[in-house]
Amino acid sequence: MTPVFYDNAPGYKQIDRGWIVLCATPDCTGAERPRIGASTMTCVACDTTWPITWPVDRADIERVLADRPVPATRAWLPTETVADLAAENAAHGIAGY
Known about the structure:
Elements: E1 4-7, E2 19-22, E3 31-32, E4 40-42, E5 49-51, H1 58-66, H2 82-91
Antiparallel strand pairs: 1-2, 2-3, 4-5
Helix pairs in contact: 1-2
């Protein structure tokens, strides 16, 4: 099992813009903010270290999300494509989409 990436994950306190990795340990609710490009993360809640793999289109995801004027809406799920995010932007009248 590998961790799941979220950008400002809904349900987690939004501290500032950045990536959040949810721990993959069953029943653990830990979430960490790894350095961009880090290959592992250690969950402070359960002290488990997991390998992490960044989305290949991370820069594109960040670019589309950065266009959103409300930080709380800058969320990404692993099932969403860059095209999905751009379509959401267009549906909400964000310029350029």
